[in-house]
Amino acid sequence: MFGMMAFVGISAYFFSRPADEIHWQEKAVFSPFFIGAIICLGFSWIFHTVCCHSCKVGKLFNKLDYCGISVLTVGSFIPWLYYCFYCRLVPKVCYLVLIFVLGALCTLVSLLDRFQTPKFRPVRAGMFIALGLSGVIPAMHFVITDGFYEAVHNASLGWLVLMAFCYIFGAVIYAVRVPERIWPGKFDIWFQSHQIFHVFVIAGAMVHYHGIIKIANYRLTLGDCTDIVAI
């Protein structure tokens, strides 16, 4: 709940800025990230509130909980890809399509009953890890074309890596069921793997917000594109 409220507040502040401070185009580009964060954290809050209502309601919102992770991850990549490949239409579109496809697959895995059993828990975690790692391809592309220094200092690569670490580490904790598998019954209410997973999701989202703010500010200081680059 607190994570969702934090992003509601941040997004309200961001969108309330006057046009001479933040243009409407930038507000539109950041929208998928804010929407993804609010949906993800909102579904998580609702799930943990109503999961004890009934088996049917609990299963439904458990699915939506994981769908929210997919929405947040996809929404996180959109502004980064937009500014990173600001003047490169073809790679920008290709990478956006890739992230949308992986996000759709993660959503599908989250919604289908077949994948809700403990047997497929590693599959679900693996899909989310693949979604998080999908950012490696455009990141390497940018490093090759623009150089490592440019990627780290101006394209927020370091912040992207830190965000990916938060998401992936949280997913691994969830997959291996630590710490409750080591100390059964000791973490039934607090500090279970699912809670740790979402803490890392919040941390990753905050880190990413800082990163895309930096790359957006840098990109906008360069002005409009003089020409469209092919790669």
From TrEMBL:
<feature type="transmembrane region" description="Helical">
    <location>
        <begin position="64"/>
        <end position="83"/>
    </location>
</feature>
<feature type="transmembrane region" description="Helical">
    <location>
        <begin position="95"/>
        <end position="113"/>
    </location>
</feature>
<dbReference type="Pfam" id="PF03006">
    <property type="entry name" value="HlyIII"/>
</dbReference>
<keyword id="KW-0479">Metal-binding</keyword>
<feature type="transmembrane region" description="Helical">
    <location>
        <begin position="125"/>
        <end position="144"/>
    </location>
</feature>
<dbReference type="InterPro" id="IPR004254">
    <property type="entry name" value="AdipoR/HlyIII-related"/>
</dbReference>
<dbReference type="GO" id="GO:0033211">
    <property type="term" value="P:adiponectin-activated signaling pathway"/>
</dbReference>
<dbReference type="GO" id="GO:0038023">
    <property type="term" value="F:signaling receptor activity"/>
</dbReference>
<dbReference type="GO" id="GO:0005886">
    <property type="term" value="C:plasma membrane"/>
</dbReference>
<comment type="similarity">
    <text>Belongs to the ADIPOR family.</text>
</comment>
<keyword id="KW-0472">Membrane</keyword>
<protein>
    <submittedName>
        <fullName>ADIPOR2</fullName>
    </submittedName>
</protein>
<keyword id="KW-0862">Zinc</keyword>
<dbReference type="GO" id="GO:0046872">
    <property type="term" value="F:metal ion binding"/>
</dbReference>
<feature type="binding site">
    <location>
        <position position="198"/>
    </location>
    <ligand>
        <name>Zn(2+)</name>
    </ligand>
</feature>
<keyword id="KW-1133">Transmembrane helix</keyword>
<feature type="transmembrane region" description="Helical">
    <location>
        <begin position="196"/>
        <end position="213"/>
    </location>
</feature>
<feature type="binding site">
    <location>
        <position position="48"/>
    </location>
    <ligand>
        <name>Zn(2+)</name>
    </ligand>
</feature>
<keyword id="KW-0812">Transmembrane</keyword>
<feature type="transmembrane region" description="Helical">
    <location>
        <begin position="156"/>
        <end position="176"/>
    </location>
</feature>
<feature type="binding site">
    <location>
        <position position="194"/>
    </location>
    <ligand>
        <name>Zn(2+)</name>
    </ligand>
</feature>
<feature type="transmembrane region" description="Helical">
    <location>
        <begin position="29"/>
        <end position="52"/>
    </location>
</feature>
